Amino acid sequence: MPIDSFPLVALLLLFITATIMPVIKKEKISKGISLISFLACFLMYFVTLNYVIKTGGYYYRIGHFPAPIGIEFYVGVVECMLGMLFTFVASIVIWYSIYNIDYDISKEKINLYYLLINILVGSLLGIVFSNDIFNIFVFIEIGNLASCGIVVIKDKKENIKAGIKYLIMSCLGSGLVLMGIAFLYSITGHLNMTFIHESMIKNYSQYTRITTITLGLFTIGLGVKSAMFPLHTWLPDAHANAPTSSSAILSSLVLKGYVWFLIKIIYKVFGKEIINNLPILNIILILGSLGMIFGSIFAIYQKNIKKVIAYSTVAQMGYIFFAIGLGTELGVTIAIFHIIGHAVTKGALFLSAGSIIQSTGLKELEDLKGVGREMPYTLGMFFIASLSMIGIPVLPGFVSKWYLALASIEANKIILIGVILLSSLLNAIYYFPIAINGFFGEENLKNKVYKSKEKPLKELLPIIILILTMIYIGVKSQSIIDLIKTGLV
User: Fold this and answer.
1) What PANTHER family does its record include (predicted)?
2) What residue segments make up the domains of the chain, in order of their start?
3) How many CB atoms lie within 10 A of CB 175?
């Protein structure tokens, strides 16, 4: 099997394994198939990344007809890195869910759950690699149904309500994206991104108004789906009420797939020549800045630990939009780096919080005081992950903020450094008290038995691996950033 076909083979593997899960009677087999399929995909993307580093990015034709008639994937450095990220985090979350999914959903729905997870991540990989915007839309719609499914599968009133809200907002975003695709096709006659860009460069002066409208449709539509402030209203309920493994997948991966599509629309479909003549980057920059601040403010006032993390996601997505809005090469590079760092970190946060909730039966912050004595390792890992969100040196969150400050200076927008500092301060305000009240305070620790509710090592290992990976990303940040830059050239 040639290496250049691995991106397609990996995607097909996830879809094919998903189709056989409904006929499997034992849920343990479904769990194993899902985990093995993600690990196999991760290895294929790892091999492909090394291949691309040596030989360069390439277009992979699917079917008999070349572009623009046929469908093709573009396989580059960044695409392979995202493929590795998505399959790695999914593998760890599936590993975690093997021990904990029974707590969230009924036994008879477990096979369906893993079917949805495989389909969802497969659709995200399709978004990452496809060079055809209509095929990306098809993958988006597949992902819509799967992502709503992993929310409502818990089958409780609040989950169904959150899932319906998510579905309505997601369909609205998809509709706007489809309208944007229709406008692009009407202007260019193409659906392939490369050919659309070539046509747009030639004909932009004749369609300035419709180009602005089209870019607005994509930005709003994908902004809804990736929780851009103030289009994030569906996210807190969906992420907070979903099963823990679903929350981790939604926050770590799903939002990132749509952001990557937005980056491709801005820089690959339209390009700098057109974008620099439009106000869209300034709008994204403003909304990103507002998301960084207000996402954190909303998190401060939450009483439920999963809602705190959910609103933190709104703030962290603000950093990504902030970086994109700067409109520089360094800004886009750090947007991608933050996608990687945040995916791993937020996965660790949600899995840690889920373990605490499962062991204690408590979700409210007030009730979790002193939990650090009962679950010192779990809360300790939660605290380490939160340090990255706050921006403590060496960890990836700090690296992102440091380079965002440098990118702001490079873009002659020094005042934005104040937004970064304020956001970091707000992050500390809602993350530090969780650990402080969990580990310290005579009243908090009273009647708490040391390690009485701690998970066994085999259940902690997935979280430990995410934490170690997070630290590795921070330590090796310069190499990762340099690699991203080579993929953007």
Assistant:
1) NA(+)_H(+) ANTIPORTER SUBUNIT D1 (PTHR42703:SF1), NADH DEHYDROGENASE (PTHR42703)
2) 279-489
3) 13
Q: Is the pTM of this model over 0.85?
A: yes
Give strand pairing partners of 304. Answer: 364
Per-residue pLDDT of 390-417, as tens digits, reads: 888 889 989 999 999 998 888 888 888 8
- 61 three-class SS: strand
Distance CA 342, CA 318 (A): 12
454: left (phi over 0), alpha (psi -120 to 50) or beta: beta
For residue range 5-39, what is the model confidence (pLDDT) as tens digits? Answer: 888 888 899 999 888 888 887 878 888 888 899 99
> How far does Cα 322 stand from its chain's mean position?
16
The torsion angles phi and psi of 344, rounded to 5 degrees, stand at: -70, -45
Q: Please, are residues 398 and 388 in contact by the beta-carbon 8 Å criterion? A: yes
- At which residue do the structure tokens 């006032």 appear? 301
Residue of 331, 221, 202, 317 whose CA lies nearest to 265: 221
Q: How much is the pLDDT for 97?
A: 87
Q: Name the one residue in this structure whose structure tokens are 């969990």.
A: 438
CB 394 within 8 A of CB 382: no
